[in-house]
Amino acid sequence: MKWRSAPLVVRGLPSLPALWAAVGVVAFLAACAVGALMGPVHISAGTVVSALTGGSIDSGQANILWSLRFPRVVLGALVGGMLAIAGAAYQGVFRNPLADPYLLGAAAGANLGATLAIAFGPGTTLIGVNLVPLAAFAGAGAAVVGAYVLGQTVSGLRSNTGLILAGVAIAAFFNSIQMYVQQSQTGSLRQVYSWILGRLTTAGWDGVWLVLPYVVLSTAIIFLHRRLLDALMVGDDEVVTLGISVRRVRLIVVVAATLGTAAVVAVGGTIAFVGIIVPHTIRLLAGRSYTVVVPLSMLFGAAFLVLADTASRTIVAPAELPIGVITAFIGAPFFIVVMRSTRAATL
Amino acid sequence: MRTHEHKAGAKPAALVPSVVVVALLFLSACASSPATSSASPGTRFPVSIAQPGGTTVTIAQRPRRIVSLSPTATEMLFAIGADSQVVAVDDQSNYPASAPKTKLSGFQPNIEAIAGYTPDLVIAAEDTGGLVHGIQALHLPILIEPAARNLDDSYLQIAQLGAATGHATEAATLVAKMRSRVGAFVASVAKPARPLRIYHELDNTYYSVTSATFIGQIYKLLGLTNIADAATGAAPDYPQLSAEYIVSSNPDLIVLADTKCCAQDIGTVGSRPGWSGIAAVKSGAVIGVDDDIASRWGPRVIDFMQAVAPRVQQLEKAA
């Protein structure tokens, strides 16, 4: 199969500079440290370190760290990394700077699935797993498949526009059903609202295990296609001259990104803006090549969401602030500052 | 039928001579919904009812076709014997079972659909979607009886509905009965030196209630310390608590008002990550209550206290 050898063919493109790789890793680890050390309950740094290194600590504090705080940090990293890398992949595949992981209706589908599960099947479990994330996952998948099939019949995938418009239409359609269910089932309004704003509040290690396989698979596939995304950036013809099916690359990357997005949205809700600002910030600061954008999006996306989640559980402690509020409130101004200071907002 | 609207300051007694203000005693306790009602209980109309925002609604004669868009108002109307005058209640009014439930919505009110029941009095808990404006345009009286902040608010609303429907005596009897039951519950708990800590759960994303809410006031009466009160800075009424905080506050008693919406019980609470060590979970002091009873400010607040107070008493004895 010709497309498999493609990454070798497209050699000579820039690879990830060691300095940026180091900065990314340090930022990620620092964010995780902050996330582990801060919370509504004060636990000293020494205690946190003993907990991590297997020292003996108070069982109440161990419970809070291991059952609640650490899984949230891990989950935040997985969700943030996944949304950012999926955003980068979507932007590359569609050659559209506004593409985010929800472009083809994943968020609308997940919202609808979750709303239906919350309204009509409260507390239902399927093979031991809460129905809400499963329904959200199914909804996200259904929306994207629907958009893909619809887009293909419209344009035969010769142009991305048909696909994107199909995604917009599917999202609007799913949103209307979701809003209807939401307003007719007022008893579950607060939960639906809380779900849509996004939260890592209630998921523990269960949530981590639920998303981990999808995130690993999805990020691995996108990672392997980073050089082809670079070729796509030049144009479809560039990929075709390499003897590779553009349609196939697009399909594989979209499926991978969607699978990962659907999984993290299922446990974290539709957290806004991460998939847009993180990859663009990296393009502005570190370079446009996907060999740079893909790995750094993963690291900085993870760091960003871990910090945002730390803020969401500490700013108004002991109450919680929805994480979707924070990602956009902090993310949007930060992004504008980066854009103004680099003066090179291009894709 | 005619309705008169005028500002509260315009001396209603001068315009409607038969109306005597009987609810002045309540005014200091409750600024949100003061009432005036008929002097001869249950017989004399017109009556004037003071409304939130300072307006007054006048009801010219004893209503015979009431539409209630508030589940709490529905429960109150049925408890004071006005049931035969109620022709339609909203889709959320599921108690009592004999209430004439319809598809009318109190959240997305449809004025035309309400008018279809040819009401002579409309009652709602909030003015959403231009409800008051729309009903007034039809020259019909509409009463807004908003979510109560405390028991006095609730008693006052029952008195208002009694006056508005010609059941002032029954309303007064109900209020007296509620007062005495509440008093008995309050007297039954010891209020120990170290108050018991309560966590009240509205849904399984840990939204809770502070002491500023109706249900929070009930806990205060029972001498409990509400762990949600630490979060009033974030949201004065219904904050969403952080799991770390709930676990570390180690509540002695957990009341689940999400048994219907979210199918929560002691089993699901105990299996949440990190929750098994909480005192309430270990001692089994996790009470499931009907979501509706715990979110309405009507006569069934007694049922709510009946579910909670004996448990508080038990825990106090054990302590």
Instruction: Please state the CA-atom Rg of chain A, rounded to the nearest Å.
Output: 20 Å
Approximately how much beta-strand content do the residues of chain A carry? Answer: under 5%
Largest sheet of chain A: 2 strands, antiparallel
Strand order of the largest sheet of chain B: 7-6-8-9
What does this entry look like structurally?
The complex is a heterodimer of chains A (347) and B (319). Residues 1-11 of chain A have low confidence and may be disordered. The longest helix of chain A has 36 residues, at 59-94. Chain A is built from 15 helices and two strands. Chain A has a two-stranded antiparallel sheet with strand order 1-2. Chain A has 347 residues and is mostly helical. In chain A, strand 1 and strand 2 (129-130) form a beta hairpin. Chain B is built from 13 helices and 13 strands. In chain B, helix 7 (168-188) packs parallel to helix 13 (301-318). The chains are: A mainly alpha (347), B alpha/beta (319). Chain A binds chain B through residues 39-41, 59-60, 63-64, 66-69, 71, 118, 122-124, 183, 186-188, 190-191, 194-195, 199, 201-202, 204-206, 313, 316-322, and chain B through 92, 107-108, 202-207, 230-231, 233-235, 239-245, 247-250, 260-264, 268, 272-274, 277, 291.
Write the layout of secondary structure elements.
The complex is a heterodimer of chains A (347) and B (319).
Chain A: H1 6-9, H2 18-37, H3 45-52, H4 59-94, H5 106-120, E1 125-126, E2 129-130, H6 131-155, H7 160-184, H8 189-196, H9 205-224, H10 226-234, H11 236-241, H12 246-268, H13 274-286, H14 290-314, H15 323-342
Antiparallel strand pairs in A: 1-2
Helix pairs in contact in A: 2-4, 2-14, 4-9, 4-12, 4-13, 4-14, 5-6, 5-7, 5-8, 5-12, 6-7, 6-12, 9-12, 13-14, 13-15, 14-15
Chain B: E1 5-7, H1 12-15, E2 19-20, H2 24-27, E3 37-38, E4 47-50, E5 55-59, E6 66-68, H3 71-79, E7 86-89, H4 111-115, E8 121-124, H5 131-137, E9 142-144, H6 151-165, H7 168-188, E10 197-201, H8 214-221, E11 225-226, H9 243-249, E12 253-256, H10 266-270, H11 279-283, E13 286-288, H12 291-295, H13 301-318
Helix pairs in contact in B: 6-7, 7-13
